[in-house]
Amino acid sequence: MVKRGLTLFLVIPLLIGIIFSSSDALTGLSIVQAKDNSNSGQWIGAWSASPMAPHDGGISNEGFDSQTIRMIVHPNASGKQISLRFSNTFGTEPLTFHKVTVADTEEGAKMKPDTNKTLTFDQEQSVTIPPGEEIHSDPIPYQVTDGEDLTVSVNVSSETGPATWHWFSYQTTYISKEGDYTESNDEEAFSETVNSWFWLSGVDVKTESNKKSRVIVALGDSITDGYMSTVNANHRWTDFLNERLDEEISNQTFSVLNQGITGNRILADSPIFGEKALSRLDRDVFSQTGVTDVILYEGINDVGHQPHVFDADKIIFGMKEIASKAHDRGLRIYAATLTPFNAFTDDSNYYTDEGEATRQEVNKWIRNNDVFDGFFDFDKAIVDPSSPDKILPEYDSGDHLHPNDRGLEKLADSIDLSMFEKPLNRGKAFVN
Asked: Which residues cross the membrane (predicted)?
């Protein structure tokens, strides 16, 4: 296979069956609940990725033509039915899928035998998504297992134009030569690979029982996105947190959704690093099916990226705005302290003494605030006690900003799970 090259701008630290426009996400409803006629189980989000605008060059700008794109996703919840969400949010032309299938993953581009199912959209196999909109597939019976990878294959029969995507997936995506290979297990048909997802923005499942569910959305930047973690290992801190919750709390169904974007900021948009956190709340957080909680872990790029934000009050104001919007929708929200970044190797201008002072001031506020429902001290979890502006070497990926797999697991281990032990009653945050 040929690895498709991406131009990396390494100034990086960090319901169902209907079409709705991005403006519809601004209705104030924090959850989009799927519908069916069964009284058992609940629809919840099992996997998600934040849609991003295509870059000016490279594969997202080029798009695809009469090819099959095979993506691997790692659900964090089990269920007996499934529905997938696809996004043409940043497309400028209608996007037509000829066929979409879902299967259990065997290895690489291969699917487990007899598991591949064709999805429909309003009972049709083919679907066209208008620019700026998203669509859910019709729900189908399908056994999804928490932690067991799914293979999603999308065939387009014509040119797509620039594609809405998620830049860094840390999961291999397989791109075929010309043709419909949605039902094929011929790995040789998939001649290219990338580490990005295209159009796929969510997987919802209907749980087996009526046990109360907890859907936790992690809103973050590259450390949440899993930057520098092992590809295909699912070692993001959100994956480790989901495993802990499943193992240690048995009275609820948990799902942790990852809405991290590498390089993302709270206060400023970027054509490379996505819309700012304040602008993507409705789409990326409040529209997630069954959302109950939010973990905010952002702000370091506001400090490090140019133009630098050395005013801690501005970053704190942005955090307060996010907390207020979450509370307005009946959600619980937690903040995580900003982790060290001295000597970041990919950008010599990223670390400054003024930036470190800003980080410390923001962290002091997080540790003593009465705005969030709690906080997680990620800084304390991986900081080098002898050099409090640096990551402890055993948790450092090598670039002095992003934790390695052990460091990401340490972040998850530092979270106080007692905050999630008591089930939540469904209130105004839920619609049925």
From this structure: none
- pTM across the whole model: 0.91
pLDDT tens track for 84-135: 999 999 999 999 999 999 999 999 999 999 999 999 999 999 999 999 999 9
Contact 144, 82 (CB under 8 A): yes
CA distance 311 to 33: 40
* Tokens standing for residue 283: 């789409």
Q: Report the distance separating Cα 97 and Cα 117, nearest Å.
A: 15
pLDDT in tens, 297-307: 999 999 999 99
Sequence letter at residue 113: P
Query: From CA 33, how far away is CA 28, in angstroms rounded?
Result: 14
First-residue to last-residue Cα distance in the chain: 46
Within 10 Å of residue 240's Cβ, how many Cβ atoms? 20
Q: What is the crossing angle of helices 405-413 and 237-248, to 10°?
A: 40
